[in-house]
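Proteins fold reproducibly. Take a sample protein:
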Amino acid sequence: MNFIKRFSLATVICLLLLTVVSCGGVSESYANKINDAAEAKEYIEYEDVCKKIGEKNLIDFTAEVLTVRGGVVIGVKGCNTWDEIEDKIDEGKTIKGLYVVIANGKAVSAEYREITTKDKQ
């Protein structure tokens, strides 16, 4: 019986850790990873950034011109449109998220910071 309790506890802890790790796309640690990769000239591709942030958390302000993609990707947990972010800001909430600059299809810099209405401009 004691073994079952310990096994159950270990399983629950592992599942919680997996949940925390899987949400790592919108975090300061992912911003640091993008910046470290850019500093080493081993840029993370735009598609990989979008996958890591996740469709439910992604606002994409990039454009592709002549097969070259550039712009900004914003990742905010639980928001996938700019209107959702504006609604939360209007409610007085502080919105933190990942702000990634994309150039030539690669993430060249990132910040995890407060997102404001000025970010849409």
